[in-house]
Structure formats: structure tokens, C-alpha cells
Amino acid sequence: MQPTSSSSASSHLSKVDPHLGERNPLRILVAEDHPVNQKMALLLLKRLGYRADVAENGLEVLAALQHQSYDVVLMDVQMPEMDGLMATQQICQLWPSETRPRIIAMTANVMQSDRQKCMEAGMSDFIPKPVELEKLASALQESHPIGKHLSSPASVPERPAIEEQALEEIQAIAGEDANMILVDLIDTYLETSTELLQKMLQAIALGDAVQLAKIAHTLKSSSQSLGATSLSQLCQQLEALGKSNQLELLPTTVQAIQTEAERVKTALLKKRQQYQAG
């Protein structure tokens, strides 16, 4: 006699520890925009002995992490405003590894290429949708409370301020006058970026989110051109915050931009000396 669907479900439930949350306590944030999926995730977590907070998009995830720490983020990949991949990249950019939550992807896209994109973005695990209780439990068993809970992002990103490849490509394009052109480009960038940072602070003081997004977009583009990838990504985050009018998150992001801009300035001035001596 074949088991009924009810008995089959009970069998699966019996394999899952309802006290996992007691044995392995975790602070969990569910990033999911669909109300039904939110409730299902919370229900599954409750079955395992966990409670969780909810964020509806990547921007809300960043906001939540700036206000308190989490050990795990169950991250939907496709969300409005800022998707799960971008949010994960920003978290990896702003929080050092020892205080960063473990990010577990939740997605209906189960191709190997989708999994690879999640891993490349900085996620640690991958759960296909619809989420199965046993797979969720397995992923949480591999998660652990972070040793030290900090609510502020890293002040200095881990990657170099300037990626050499971008400057080398400009050098190759410029030909014989490469050094002189690079010196001019660096001077122009440093001058305009200083002006943009000042305008950025003015826009914040005025509460002008539209202007702030425009300034962030401009600095994002010029920074990327000279290989200041970290600064460019921070500006991308600020641009998204401006577009969504989430002014309460601006101070932390702007502070990170100012810190990174100083790193970029120091690196570019060093390169400028090399080109002049060249």
C-alpha cells in the first residue's frame, strides 16, 4: 500500500529537528518581496524553531544590516529596487568577512549558471524554490553565529583602491602620449570628484534625493573609467538610495564614499608621480 501524501509529509517532518533553533541559535533576515513567499519562509523557519525579520528588497536588507546584525540572510535573487545579487555584492563590499552574515540564495532558477552567479556575487549557499524544509534545515545547520556583532560597515573595502588594468588599457589606447594623457586625466578626475563630493553633501543637506542620485551616477561613471571600482560600486548604492528616496541610509553610505575617495586620491597621486617620471 502506497503512503498517502499526508503520511509522506509527516515522514519528511519527522526527519527535521524542530529544536534546531535552540541548538544552533541564529539571527535570521528573510529577503523576499512576495507576501506569500514571505509567510512560507517564516512558517518553515518556525517549524525549525527560528524567528526571523523580513526585508522586501535589497535596499531594505542593507538598511536592516545597518541597524542590527544578522547571522544569516535568506536572499531571494529577483527583487525590485535592488536584487539579491547586487545586495550581496554590496554586503561583501561594506562588511568585513568576520562580521558579515552568511548569505543563502533562494531562487526558482536552478541552472548551474544561476548557482554560479550566486556564488560569484558572494553568496555561501543555494536553496531552490519552492523551499523544502530539509534543505533549509541543512543550510542553517551549516550556518553559525558570527563571533562579533557589529552594526557598522567596513570603513575600508578589501580590494585595491585602483585596479591597474583600467589604467593600462588607457595607456594602450593613448599610445606615445600615454603618460601625459594619464596625468591630465588624473588631474581632471581629482578636481571634478572633489566638486562632486561637495555637491553630494549639499544635496543631502537640502534633502534633494533626485540631485543626489544624479551626482552619484556621475561619480560612479568617472570612477569606473579610472579603475576605482570600489568607489564606483558605493556610488551605485548611493544612486539607488537617492532614486528610492531612502534618505535615512545616506550618512553611512556617504561616509564610506568619502573614506574610499581618499584611498582613490592617494593611489592616483602615486600613479601620477610615476607617469610624470615616466
Topology summary:
Elements lengths: L4 H10 L5 H4 L4 E4 L3 H13 L4 E4 L2 H10 L4 E5 L7 H11 L7 E6 L4 H10 L3 E4 L4 H9 L22 H11 L3 H29 L2 H17 L3 H15 L6 H28 L1
Parallel strand pairs: 1-2, 1-3, 3-4, 4-5
Helix pairs in contact: 4-5, 8-9, 9-10, 9-12, 10-11, 11-12
How is this structure best described in words?
The relative contact order is 0.11. Strand 1, helix 3 (35-47) and strand 2 (52-55) form a beta-alpha-beta unit. The longest helix is centred in the last third of the chain and has 29 residues, at 178-206. A 5-stranded parallel beta sheet has the order 2-1-3-4-5, with helices on both faces. The radius of gyration is 23 Å and the shape is elongated. The chain is an alpha/beta fold. The chain has helices spanning 5-14, 20-23, 35-47, 58-67, 84-94, 112-121, 133-141, 164-174, 178-206, 209-225, 229-243, 250-277, and strands spanning 28-31, 52-55, 72-76, 102-107, 125-128. It is built from 12 helices and 5 strands. Helix 8 (164-174) packs across helix 9 (178-206), helix 9 runs antiparallel to helix 12 (250-277) and helix 11 (229-243) packs antiparallel against helix 12. It starts with a helix and ends with a helix. Helix content is 60%, strand content 8%.
Brief rundown of the structure:
By secondary structure, this protein is α/β, with parallel strands linked by helices. The chain contains twelve helices and five strands. Strands 2-1-3-4-5 form a five-stranded parallel beta sheet, sandwiched between helices.
Give me some keywords for this one.
278 residues, five-stranded parallel beta sheet, disordered N terminus, 60% helix, alpha/beta
